[in-house]
Amino acid sequence: QSALTQPASVSGSPGQSITIACTGTSSDVGGYNYVSWYQQHPGKAPKLMIFDVDNRPSGVSNRFSGSKSGNTASLTISGLQAEDEADYYCSSYGSGTTAVFGGGTKVTVL
Amino acid sequence: QVQLQESGPGLVKPSETLSLTCTVSGYSISSGYYWGWIRQPPGKGLEWIGTIYRSGTTYYNPSLKSRVTISLDTSKNQFSLKLSSVTATDTAVYYCARGFFYEKIDSWGQGTLVTVSS
C-alpha cells in the first residue's frame, strides 16, 4: 500500500484558481468513488472539505470542488483567499478494506 | 455533535507499547460508523493506522499490522490503540477519528503528541 501522490506545494494569488492533483492506482483512487480531501492548518486537526470525489459537507465554501479522472483525483480552489493557505491531503478507500492518504500539498497564497 | 478526545502517555520508551484511548461523546459508538486511528509524524503527512467497526471487526494498515491492536469498550463509549515495539519513527501526533472507507472522516480528535525516547 503506497501513499497517494500529491505535489509538495502549489501557490496562487488571491482571487486565482488552483488545482491539486492526487494520483493513485486502480486499486484505490481509480477503483472507487470514495476520495476525500482534508484541509489542515498548523497545529490543528484536519477538516473534511470534499467527500465521495465531488461532494461538499455543509458549511464548506462552494469555492472548493472535487473531480476525478481515471487514477487521478483533483481538488480545485477558486477565488483563492488568504484563509485557504494550509496543507491539503487527499484520501481514498483501497482494495482489501484499507485507507490511504496522499503525502500532502502546501498551498501558499502569494 | 460528536466529539472525540485522545488520552494516554505523551512519552514512551523504545521497545515498549504505546497505548492510547479515544473517548467519544455525543454519539454511541455501538450505533454505527467505523472508528479508527491516524498519525502524523512531525512535519510529515497523515498515515492511516487502523479501523474498527461496532461489531469489533478490525482493519489494519499492512505496514503496521504486526504491531497494532485496536479494540472497543462500548460500556465506556471508548476505543483504544496499542502499538507494540515502538521506535523513534513512531513519534507522531496520533488522531482518533470517525468515518472510514466508504464513509467520510467527518470528526477528528484534537490529536495527541506521543514521543518515543529513552
Structure description:
The complex is a heterodimer of chains A (110) and B (118). By secondary structure, chain A is an all-beta fold. Chain A has strands at 9-12, 18-23, 35-40, 47-50, 64-69, 72-77, 86-94, 98-101, 105-109. In chain A, the strands form two sheets. In chain A, strands 1, 3, 4, 7, 8 and 9 form a six-stranded mixed sheet that branches. Chain A starts with 8 loop residues before the first strand and ends with a strand. The mean pLDDT of chain A is 96. Chain B is mainly beta. Helix content of chain B is 0%, strand content 49%. Chain B has no helices and eleven strands. In chain B, strands 2, 4, 5, 6, 9, 10 and 11 form a seven-stranded mixed sheet that branches. Chain B has a four-stranded antiparallel sheet with strand order 1-3-8-7, with no helix packed on it. Chain B is globular. Chain A binds chain B through residues 1, 3, 32, 34, 36, 38, 45-48, 51-52, 57, 89, 91, 93, 96-104, and chain B through 38, 44-48, 51, 59, 61-63, 95, 100-102, 104-106, 108-111.
Task: Walk me through the topology.
The complex is a heterodimer of chains A (110) and B (118).
Chain A: E1 9-12, E2 18-23, E3 35-40, E4 47-50, E5 64-69, E6 72-77, E7 86-94, E8 98-101, E9 105-109
Chain B: E1 3-7, E2 11-12, E3 18-25, E4 34-40, E5 47-53, E6 58-60, E7 68-73, E8 78-83, E9 92-98, E10 107-108, E11 112-116
Parallel strand pairs in B: 2-11
Antiparallel strand pairs in B: 1-3, 3-8, 4-5, 4-9, 5-6, 7-8, 9-10, 9-11
Q: What keyword list fits this structure?
A:
heterodimer, A: mainly beta, six-stranded mixed β-sheet, three-stranded antiparallel β-sheet, B: mainly beta
